[in-house]
Specification:
Length: 399
């Protein structure tokens, strides 16, 4: 093993249900970490960006052990609840589509977790977007458009900094100062894709890139008493979640496109809307021929909050994911989710029902790039082998 690698044997046993989550969290333990693999014995193999000093290596070991111990101590195994299982649907490819997509120029990686899509993949995204908007309109949704940014004050109110600090993407601009701007223009350099700027160049951060679509709808309704309920919005937009070394191919992007249908109203109204829209989403996936299952899940909270918050979601059945089969790796990929927020946003940003009580909310969302990737993994990259509605539909979307 080279000096740019090390092995950590966790001092506490890691249960199997937590293994995948643990490996993904190791990406944020130390900036030296370039890749993490967990072997069959439970040892963690770290591939590092450079040869560490003895002090850095000791610090890495300490941070890994503390993180593992905390995650294991605070997380309980959730009961698995599968609402739908259609994993036995026929699939027509066993190849990783990424190989062909990159080789033939259908996608181009322009940065970590950032891809440009050519006509083959872009037309699939447009086709799925059209199907999803029809679903949203059928639920009574009105179309909205939201900015890619969201104010930092809103994210603070909904405790996003506490629960998901590792995935934040910040929006910055230079201070309105002629000398600072001139110094930036003269001294700023870019080496190996990394920008080096003079100290104190940036103004205070006011906005971040939005991690999801529904947040901007709740921001629109903040500090308001709703005159009618349920309020139903449908929208698609760019979302941003930084996931470090976990970002790869179209499976996990920093910048991705999300479609959502969003419900705000009483608890009974939101639950009924989620049930009806969820049934419609399942019918759509079945008509498209997807092999998938719908199962309970949790959001990717940071280490300190993971056990408590994930457990809360699981106990109250707040989140379910549509997980599509990826035949080439005998695994699954979350392509969408159904989320019930209870009255969290109503309380956090003062969205009030006519009777004065906090509003409840929920949403169903699908990642368009993930939908396209899962489809290509199951049906292949040759459109001649796609189901006829998709093959014909994508021709009308510029393929």
């Amino acid at each position: 093993m080279s000096d740019k690698a090390c092995v950590v044997h966790p001092a506490v046993a890691v249960p199997d249900f937590l293994a995948h989550e643990l490996v993904s969290k190791m990406a944020y333990v130390d900036p030296l970490v370039a890749r993490v693999i967990r072997d069959d014995r439970g040892d963690l193999h770290f591939h590092l960006r450079r040869v560490p000093s003895d002090e850095e290596l000791a610090a890495l070991h300490d941070k890994v052990q503390r993180s593992v111990a905390f995650l294991v101590a605070t997380t309980r195994e959730p009961p698995i609840k599968i609402l739908e299982d259609r994993m036995d649907q026929p699939v027509f490819s066993a190849d990783d589509p990424t190989v062909v997509l990159l080789r033939d120029g259908h996608v181009t990686q322009t940065g970590d977790g950032v891809f440009s899509l050519g006509p083959l993949v872009a037309s699939l995204c447009r086709y799925f977007e059209g199907q999803l908007f029809r679903l949203g309109f059928a639920q009574g949704g009105h179309i909205y458009r939201f900015p890619a940014m969201i104010p930092s004050g809103f994210l603070e109110k909904i405790q996003y900094f506490k629960n998901f600090p590792h995935s934040l993407s910040f929006v910055a601009h230079l201070q309105e100062d002629m000398e600072i701007i001139e110094r930036f223009a003269k001294e700023t350099t870019c080496f190996d894709g990394t920008l080096t700027v003079p100290d104190h160049s940036f103004a205070q951060i006011q906005n971040l890139l939005s991690p999801t679509v529904c947040h901007n709808f709740y921001l629109m309704l903040a500090n308001k008493t709703l005159s009618r309920t349920p309020m139903i919005a449908t929208a698609q937009g760019n979302c941003f979640r930084y996931e470090s070394i976990n970002m790869h191919s179209l499976e996990r992007l920093w910048n991705f496109t999300m479609w959502e249908v969003i419900f705000v109203g009483s608890s009974q109204q939101v639950k009924q809307c989620l049930l009806q829209a969820g049934e419609a989403a399942s019918r759509m996936l079945q008509q498209l021929g997807f092999a998938y299952r719908l199962e309970n899940a949790n959001d990717p909270f940071f280490i300190r909050e993971f056990g408590t918050q994930a457990g809360f979601q699981q106990i109250y059945d707040l989140k379910y994911e549509y997980r599509a089969l990826l035949p080439f790796k005998n695994g699954t990929l979350s392509i969408g989710s159904r989320n019930y927020h209870m009255d969290f946003f109503g309380r956090s940003v003062a969205i009030t029902l006519p009777d004065g009580s906090p509003a409840h909310s929920g949403c169903i969302g699908f990642g368009l790039e993930r939908l396209a990737f899962a489809f290509l993994a199951q049906f292949g990259t040759n459109p001649d082998h796609w189901p006829e509605p998709v093959r014909i539909g994508t021709l009308g979307q510029g393929r």
